[in-house]
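Let's practice the habit of predicting before peeking. Look at the sequence and jot down your guess about where helices and strands might fall. Then scroll down.
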Amino acid sequence: MSASEKLKQWFEERFGLKSVDSILRPIPNFSFRPDYWLGALLALGFVLQGITGFLLLLYYVPTPSQAWASTHYIMTSVPYGSLLLTFHLYDAYAIILIAFLHMFRNFFVGSYKRPRESMWFYGVILGLITLGFGFTGYLLPWTVISKSATDVGIGMLNYFPSWLTGPLKSLLVGNGTDASELTRFFAMHVILLPLLLALFLSLKIFTYEAHGMAPPLGKSKDQGQTSWYPGGLLYLTMIGLFYIGGLLIISSMFPATLPPAYSVQAAMAITPEPDWYFLWIYQILKLSIFGGPNVIYALTLISLLFVVLFFVPVIDLKGGRAPHERPVIFTLGMIVATSVIFLTIWAYLTPGQTVPFYQAVLYIGGIAVVEGIAAYLGLKRRSSGSGKVAGVHPSIAMLTLVASIIGASASLLMLEKGYLISALLLIGFIYSSIVSISKIEAKRE
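Done guessing? Here is the structure:
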């Protein structure tokens, strides 16, 4: 008997477990590919956040007079402190990025369909909790950039009725002093949000154990299963070590820098700007049509977008999971995904600049046209020789989505050259999309 078998037998005898499969659902063989393990990577990322966050707490002091100084001390005087803080930061960035990928991946493959609606609900809540971690953690170093941007974000609550946002604002800033604001953000970051994360993550894991993974489109569930031990554990260890190693390399090559400490004088000299994962919202707020008191309409629009996102399983009740069975919502998802990336890049290139509304109509409208044409060509149903109806493989639409992101970004970079060139670029991109899809479809047939 091998050492691993002896260890397994020891656990079975001591804890009364016949096998690990009596606790965790065996893993379908079709799921041994990275896109099925994005959720597991997120869980690993949060564990790493807890470990590195605990180590940072040994030195961090959550007071306005000491927050920046203690952060600076970690980066300059604590052994490997700069690597530790950079790893914590980049792991947080990776979590947010993977959360977006995980959400859009599940959207495009229809994983929210019956009976997995509740998993989508829990996932959206977990996504909001993740953004909450980013929002509260951004303030803690107490730099002039983070403090100014956070105050602007909190100030947006003033545009809503006080009865609606009053309790939330009180929770965030307390009596309005800097000390109260920092203390409350710190408490939410290290206590409240981790508790909520543990709760909804447990609910999602429980629901997963009840329903299992959604099989790939066009394939049945019955493709064999692998036990969590040792097959699943080895695969998780492999991608986990790859994730940790990648973060360590990036953190070593590109260490984080600490902006100047917050002061009123320093804040007057900079343009407040949120971190990258909120830049798309920032760009919407910068549109000229939402200037002044009209910002409430932008905030309402953004809030409705999150509400619609939450209720996607309720909205898309009919049809199956295949893209050609839900062409409208699939196309809308492509437009939203591309627009979020496009607005993020646009905001990064135009910090603090008010954007004319017609530019947004030109670019976002161009994206919508491109995506609509791509969806029509990539998802339309075709009659085969036998009289049956076949749908184009969804990878065609996904390739077009990637191409549209590149084309939209390129058109934005051409903005300085004049709108005519940008419009021609969009038209040329539409043509190239049609040609590429036609070639892919011809090769597939």
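How did you do? The chain has a mean pLDDT of 83.
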